[in-house]
Amino acid sequence: MKPWRLGLRRILAGVALGAVLAGGAGLSAPSSGTAPGEAPVWVIPVHGTIDLGLAVYVEREAAKALEAGAQLILIELNTFGGRVDAATEIRDTLLRSPIPAAAFIGERAWSAGALIALAADWIYMAPGSSIGAAQPVPADEKTVSALRAEFEATAERTGRDPRIAAAMVDASVAIDGLVAEGQILTLTAVRAVEVGYADGIASSREEVLAALGFAGRQTVVARLSWAERAARFLSEPTVSQLLLTLGFLGLIAEATSPGLGVPGAVGVISLLLFYGSRMIAGLVGWEAALLLLAGLVLLALEIFVIPGFGVAGLAGIGATLASLVISFGGVEEALRSVGISLALTLAGAVVIWRYGRRRGLWRRVVLETRLAGKDRTVDEGPRPAVGQQGVALTALRPSGIVEIEGERVDALSEGGYIAAGTPVEVRAVEGRRVVVREIKGG
Questions:
Q1: What is the pTM of this model?
Q2: How far apart are CA 154 and CA 159, in angstroms?
Q3: Is residue 150 over pLDDT 50?
Q4: Which domains does the chain have, with CATH numbers?
Q5: How far apart are CA 347 and CA 336, in angstroms?
C-alpha cells in the first residue's frame, strides 16, 4: 500500500473519530548518527501480539525506509505470536523489500513471530531468548500443512534448513539430536546458533549493528503513536466483539424507547470506536463506514417510515453485513465475530427487557418523557383505564401517540406495527406505560 494513501487514511479516520479517538500518525525518531546524509539503518520494533494493524505499520515503515535510502531494516522482535495472516503479510513485506533485513530477538519470537524472523536475511538473538513454538490453533491437518509449507518456503528463501522450520510447526517432524516426534521445536539462542538458524548472539542493538558492519551508523527508530496503539487495542478480536455488542444493544434499546438516552449514545460511540480504530490502524477505508451508514439509514426507513418489511430492510441488512465483512477482512472471521456479538446482543436485550424494566433500570438510562410539540405530548395527566378505546394519532413502531377520550397519550403497541388512524384498545396500564392493540375490523 502506498505511503500517501496510508497517511490520508489516518487523517480521514482522525476526523471521523474527532474527540473520541484523536491523534497523529506514528513518527519515526532518528537517533544520534555519524555523517549527515549517510544512509541510515531503519529499526522497526515488533512487540506484543501480531495483528493486522501491526502488519500495516511494518509495511508503512518499510516503504519509508526505501524512500530514505536506508541500507538495512532491523526488526526487533519480542512476541508470543498472534495472527498468522498478519505475520504472513509482514513476511511478504520483508521478502519483497530490496533492502536487506535483520531480525534481533530480544526475548522470544514464538509462533507468528518465528515466521517473521525467518523472513530476515540475518537473525541475532539475545542471551536467554528463544524462537519456535509455532504449532497453529486449531492444529488440524489442513491448517498445520498450510503453515508448515509457509515456514519451509520462507526458510528456503533465506537459506535456512526447511526441516527445522517444519519442526517448529508440525509435531510429526522428527530431527535426530534436535527434536523427537510428537514435540514442537523451540530453539534457545545457543542452540539456534549451533544448528545455523541464528547468525550470532548479541546483547543489544549496537552489538547487532556492529556484527553486521553498521557500527556507529545513524538509526531511525519507528514508533507507533498513542492513537495507533489505542487503535491496535480496540481492533483486537475480543475488544471488537465487545464494541459491536455494545453498539447493537445500544441501537436496539434506542429504537424501542422514546427520546435519545444513554443506550443510543453508548451504541453510537461503540460503533465509532469499532470503525475508527480500524481506519486508524489501516485495516479498512471509508467504504466500510459508508456501507454501515447506508445500512442503518435503510433499516431506519424500514422501521420508522415504511410499513412492513421489504426491499429497504433487506438492502439495509445486506449493506450492514457487507460493511462488517470488509471490516474483519473476510467472510469467515466476520461471520464468527458477528455471530458471537449478535448472540451476546440478544442475550443482553432479553435480560434488560425482562428484568431491567421491572426493576426500574430501563427508566434510569432511557429518557421516557417526550417534549411538547406538533406530534409530542408531555407524559402528564390522568391515565386511561384498561378496555378504553381510542385511535392512533401517529404510527406505533411500537411506540407512538394515541388519543383516548380526547386525551393524547404515549403508548406502546402490544403486537407489531399499527398505522396512524387505526382504532385501538387499551390492554394494560403499568404506571406511565400504556399498552394498546389494534381493534380488528374497527
A1: 0.63
A2: 9
A3: yes
A4: 27-223 (3.90.226.10), 233-365 (no CATH), 370-442 (2.40.50.140)
A5: 17
